[in-house]
Amino acid sequence: MTKPKSHALIVLGMHRSGTSAITGVLHRLGVTLGPKLYRGHAGINDKGYFEHADIADTNNNALLLLGSSWDDILPLENDWWQDPRLKPLAIKQRKYLRRDFSNTLLWAIKDPRVCRLLPWWQHCILEPEGVDARYLLIVRDPLEVTNSLMRRDGFSERKSMLLWLEHNLQAEYWTRNHMRTCLAFDLLLADPENSLNQIEKDLKLSFSISIANALPSIKTFLNADLRHHRQSKQPKELETLADLAYQLYQVMGGADKSWLNLNLNDYFLESFKKNRLKDQSVLIEHLKSVSLQNGNSRFLIQKIFRSHAWQLGKPFRFIERMLGGEA
Fold this sequence. Notes:
By secondary structure, this protein is an alpha/beta fold.
């Protein structure tokens, strides 16, 4: 008897765009997310992040290894996913997939970092494991995301718009010619039933718990508390990146989904590449952030070196080095 093939849902979207909300809904429809998920934070993601902790940590380490981070405004190098230093991390990710999802018919991975790491995930993790991946993109009004990031991380509007474009353009580009669909966060909150029916239809799958049976629980989960920042209308005056973000949002979040099969015009990608670093204030903000993180790291290292535990361990580390040298 042939074993039924499992399917993976890869949830893609910018941070603060509803990725946690849609993944929480998928969980209520019987989609497996893994045994150890990150808990939420009060006032930010009260109901949970729904991120596989081991996978999210490894994604973060992959970005760090590349000299980047989730909020890096600089692009990664060409063909960065072929960097041999990433191979051990890809092996770890594949191990997690086999450990936690090998006997599961429908499972999901959610981590906004995957937007920036997607070619690595596709070429080095999913394809070698023979995973049948379907992609669920979710988009949210750029200014709502900006307001949320300003409150949580203190980012400027320009930096947030740049990150919004980076994540969504990467997600769109690397899912071309793959089975995919896109959902607006607004629509998920306003009409979850039709939104989920559309996901089933577009991605050619069936949830183990029917939408009708799960709907009461889903509606309770998708209450107004999930939306901390609302943008009632588009600002009248927009700078280049913000204007580009709103154009892209209107396409990806609109009712006409023909672009899913036709692919977006590369006008968006080219315009973004041309304008992403024109504003020096964004570069200055980025440099200040990197400098602050570096200073904090140095402070913590010095604190460790001066701690009693470190001082007490000195003789043991010396003996360990001596024994290692003899070996």
